[in-house]
């Protein structure tokens, strides 16, 4: 079944759902994943994004999303001014590489003490997005679900541990995928749930020797700017 985004498109500021609504949602998703205060960001644009980002307002939409603005927020028009007021430093890099999708962007985000995270995402049209890579590990994040990411060593027992913690908390899993570079190496588990997950459950999940870090974020429509 088609979503309302696919049928009529989203309410948005700007001429193109892919280049503005999708871009704003990508920026907001990157902000949600990064969690920390963003001090500076390099945005590498690929394909159509790189060719038309100024004329289509993609640049303002991406920065607005990083500030926590929704696609329909009129403040996107003045996103550069708001970024300056928030001391958010940014630069756009036009890549000659076509990337993995015509509307793709890589965020290199930096926080306090040069804390760094790389996030790659693409705008699929109609305001829909997909984050495909976090810190050089493959993922699939749409921004439409309650989502848990675990970064862990690929070994027996990790999946059972995580699912048991969610089961004890009566959290229902809607989808789950595991990505790994190769056997017994670094891996990522992506879990979407029907309910929000509280901080204690996340702490319980983290309490496994093979799990290096855990992330949790809510659907973009529920994400509130700091």
What does this protein structure show overall?
By secondary structure, the chain is an alpha+beta fold. The chain has two domains: 4-135, 60s Ribosomal Protein L30, Chain: A (2-Layer Sandwich), CATH 3.30.1330.90; 146-217, ACT domain (Alpha-Beta Plaits), CATH 3.30.70.260. The chain is 28% helix and 33% strand. The chain contains seven helices and ten strands. The strands form two sheets. Strands 2-1-3-4-5-6 form a six-stranded mixed sheet. It is globular, with a radius of gyration of 18 Å.
Defining traits:
226 residues; alpha+beta; 60s Ribosomal Protein L30, Chain: A; Alpha-Beta Plaits; 2 domains; six-stranded mixed sheet; four-stranded antiparallel sheet; 28% helix; iron
Q: Overall 3D geometry?
A: globular
Largest pleated sheet: 6 strands, mixed
Look at the structure and name the CATH superfamily of the largest domain: D-3-phosphoglycerate dehydrogenase, domain 3
End-to-end Cα distance, whole Å, is: 34 Å
